[in-house]
Amino acid sequence: MSSSLISRSTHAAVRNAARSARTVGVTSRSFVSLSKFTAVKKTPSSAQRVTSTQFTRGIKTLDFAGTKEVVYERSDWPLPKLQEFFKNDTLALIGYGSQGHGQGLNARDNGLNVIIGVRKDGESWKQALEDGWVPGETLFSIEEAIDRGTIIMNLLSDAAQSATWPTIAPLITKGKILYFSHGFSVVYKDDTHVVPPPDVDVILVAPKGSGRTVRTLFKEGRGINSSIAIWQDVTGKAKEKAIALGIAVGSGYLYETTFEREVYSDLYGERGVVLRKNGHTPSEAFNETVEEATQSLYPLIGAHGMDYMYAACSTTARRGALDWAPVFEKANLPIFEKLYQSVRDGTETRKSLEFNGRKTYREDLARELAEIDSQEIWRAGKVVRSLRPDYKGE
Ligand SMILES: NC(=O)c1ccc[n+]([C@@H]2O[C@H](COP(=O)([O-])OP(=O)(O)OC[C@H]3O[C@@H](n4cnc5c(N)ncnc54)[C@H](OP(=O)(O)O)[C@@H]3O)[C@@H](O)[C@H]2O)c1
């Protein structure tokens, strides 16, 4: 991107952020500086340079359709601060599926010390080699990576987290941090038998989308929405570490949740209204449904097809979607058949002629759309959208 383009888009971003802050009733705002950072991977390669434009502001509490929530953002963590925070750490990413790829490359591009641990000569090992991880330097067996790491980021498949736990648990010694991207393993501990040692911080950063999207949004200078949660805080600094790691792996905005709420909403991942009834926040309901679908899943389907989208999702998500697809199909089929009949017998045509032939068709439509607009999920969505760096108002 040319410097004039960066400058134009930076100023536009600040203007838009100021506008959005006014629109959504931000409780504290102070646009104090405008800064640009160029992140360079530790592995030197000019092709691997990522430029991101950031601006500092003090947004903390936002009003999501009447519910106030704290949101943490990347601009609170400029690169020098991030690199200083992790200067004595080695991020050991265990597993190199979709999330390992996205989070690992982003953290590496952010200039952090990242190593990968996967089983030797598996599919992930090959993928890691292709992405420039070097055996014996940044690419290790799972056990060796955990041994070398200070922050153990468990990005194995959820099933593998359970299967490998007896082997890896003893390696997670006091002083290390245990990180997950899903509440699955620890919340369902009766089934997974994943019980973290009592003397380590246990945190979660769960991106609301495929690891492929985590990567592309980062490269575009944007950032995926993620949720953060704390399972165990032995140092008293677990939350700060979760926020910093969320930014390090490429999140733009971080929403607070719990391990339980994250796993229930993610596995459920369906209609926001039902999530709200079960105690999830407006932002979580929106992020788990509309945001993830429109910002991550649909673009992947559009660009590469349905099979690619499935492959880019976790093994757990894939299983759920494949198992539930025929159930939804069976339940919905009679409705779609009814709709088709209604088209064929002219009912839909007559309704359209009647409604759109009214003198008041604009006012009548506006009334119906206003009802949708006032629904909590779409009001929460406005706040989520307004946080995007490319937000241009609505
Ligand atoms: N993908 C998403 O959309 C998404 C979004 C948010 C959070 N998450 C969470 O992020 C975590 C990682 O998910 P993911 O989608 O990136 O990965 P994934 O596809 O579910 O898992 C892939 C990794 O697990 C390894 N693995 C599988 N079985 C193994 C075994 N028996 N022993 C050792 N390694 C094994 C694979 O290595 P091999 O190649 O050697 O088989 C690969 O590195 C999960 O907790 C998931 O729920 C995923």
Automatic annotation (TrEMBL):
Residues 258-391 form the KARI C-terminal knotted domain. Residues 68-257 form the KARI N-terminal Rossmann domain. GO terms for cellular component: mitochondrial matrix. Pfam families: KARI_C, KARI_N. Keywords: Amino-acid biosynthesis, Branched-chain amino acid biosynthesis, Magnesium, Metal-binding, Mitochondrion, NADP, Oxidoreductase, Transit peptide. Gene3D superfamilies: N-(1-d-carboxylethyl)-l-norvaline Dehydrogenase, domain 2 (1.10.1040.10), NAD(P)-binding Rossmann-like Domain (3.40.50.720). The lineage of its organism: Eukaryota, Fungi, Dikarya, Basidiomycota, Agaricomycotina. GO terms for molecular function: ketol-acid reductoisomerase activity; metal ion binding. Its cofactor is Mg(2+). This is Ketol-acid reductoisomerase, mitochondrial. Belongs to the ketol-acid reductoisomerase family.
